[in-house]
Design brief:
Blueprint: H1 2-30, H2 34-73, H3 92-108, H4 113-126, H5 129-144
Length: 145
Amino acid sequence: MKGRLAAGLMALLLVFYLVLVGWRAVLFLQSGEIIGIVIGVALLVLPLVGVWALVAELRFGRNSERLVRRLEAEGGLPVEELPIRPSGRPMRDEADAEFPIFRAAVDAAPDDWRAWFRLGLAYNSSGDRRRARGAIRTAISLERA
């Protein structure tokens, strides 16, 4: 719940920032000078990219939560019994030791979204955020298909 609240607050702050930047862009465009118009166009592109990124992240979070709930209802979430650091994150060496189990499950069933999702969780436990997000995106696409 805290994560969802924090994401909502950050989204609101980003929207506020994008509105302010958009307003400045309009003012630059109305200046009538070439450099002002160029800056105005650049400032209009940045909020569009920001909105796209915000929507993509919120969609990813919503879809990930949906898969977690579904996998939990099926009893398919992996049980994490890894030792953790004071920060609450799993110890990387222990997480890396369990990683081959999840990789083998994906190799055995490459079209199973559940295996991909568990692999994403294993990547996340190992600290590899980029691959974790990639595996979870694959799980989302496979689940939709």
